[in-house]
Design brief:
two-stranded antiparallel sheet, 14 strands, alpha/beta
């Protein structure tokens, strides 16, 4: 780690046409960020200069080509400059191949720095999947890029915000296929991943709630067989290993209990089962303005050999460059990455 035992975090710029640069500038304009970690942005220094100007503050950009040249001083934002944007043709709020390529290169550079142990963890600002694919990088998103460039096969998505921490047995697959992926071994794998993550958050003996798949967790087989054949055997195996787990818990009550602190983590059986309650808790829509007022929550990829924490919201092209994007999720992401880096050390 860097000086004062503060971890070095590589923060990716995200899609430069979106709100990524803005929320990074806002997060790094707070001294509390530098009190906990040493941040360095991977991306385009010229884009970050524009973000500073739009934010109307006096922060200075220190463009470097080596982590060793970073100052890690409050008031100066270190940028690992990969010169990935043609400023003459750059436009905010629009899908563009060069922006998708820039976001991709910023992520790959952060991964390289983490794999070579030049940084202690990574935090990602949002990218745009359409722009990413226009640039010829055919990945579903950050998670798949990280898995590919770290050669990781067993990984899972964890959403986290206060008491609500949710990991998924499956994510980006059709719902019909998701039901077929509810298997004992996969449930055990992701439960052990969230338990390990809780240890990195400083929770020594996490209490994990494991959701059922069917209504009422099938009511003893009345509404399906997955609980009896796959989920319950997984829970029994986990208990035999000494883990503090409970389940299968009916999905409609699991998350209501979790948000109030009964569980340190939850295992959801498929994407929307976990995402919907998580975003109901962390996202707030303002009906008067017709916009999302706040978007708390982070997305952590577990199972990787490096730390990756991300904001759990998109590029928000409609508000890019307007100075109104909330840095809440970025601040929370930095906080989680810092804690994970310290507890890994």
């Amino acid at each position: 780690m860097a000086n004062s035992n503060k971890p070095i975090l590589a923060i990716t710029m995200g899609d430069p046409a979106g709100i990524g640069p803005e929320i990074i500038i806002k997060a790094l304009s707070l001294k509390e960020t530098y009190d906990k970690c040493n941040p360095i942005v991977t991306g385009d220094a010229a884009v970050m200069e524009i973000a500073v100007q739009q934010a109307g503050n006096s922060l200075k950009i220190n463009a470097v080509s080596n982590v060793k040249d970073a100052k890690f001083t409050y008031g100066t934002i270190d940028v690992y400059d990969i010169h990935c944007i043609d400023i003459k043709t750059f436009k905010q709020g629009e899908v563009a191949a060069q922006c998708g390529d820039a976001a991709f290169k910023a992520v790959v550079k952060a991964i390289e720095l983490a794999m070579s142990k030049e940084v202690d963890g990574t935090v990602t600002a949002p990218l745009n999947k359409e722009a990413l694919n226009l640039a010829g990088h055919h990945f579903d998103g950050h998670t798949e890029i990280y898995a590919h460039y770290t050669n990781t096969r067993k990984y899972a998505m964890l959403l986290a915000d206060d008491f609500m921490r949710v990991i998924h047995v499956s994510t980006h697959v059709p719902l019909r296929k998701a039901c077929d992926l509810v298997k004992k071994e996969r449930i055990i794998d992701v439960t052990e991943l969230i338990i390990d993550a809780c240890h990195q958050f400083g929770i020594s003996n996490p209490h994990i709630g494991i959701a059922g798949l069917n209504p009422h967790a099938s009511d003893n087989g009345l509404f399906g067989d997955e609980e009896r054949e796959e989920i319950t055997p997984a829970v029994e195996t986990l208990k035999a290993k000494g883990y503090n787990v409970e389940g299968p818990v009916p999905p409609d009550t699991l998350f209501a209990k979790a948000k109030c602190g009964k569980f340190d983590g939850c295992v959801a059986m498929y994407h929307d089962q976990g995402h919907i309650p998580f975003k109901v808790v962390g996202f707030n829509w303002n009906k008067d303005t017709g916009k999302m007022e706040s978007t708390k929550g982070v997305n952590i990829t577990l199972g990787l050999p490096i730390i990756r924490v991300s904001v759990d919201h998109g590029t928000a092209f409609d508000v890019a460059g307007k100075g109104i994007a909330s840095p809440e999720a970025m601040l929370l992401s930095i906080d989680y990455a810092t804690r994970m880096a310290k507890n890994r050390a």
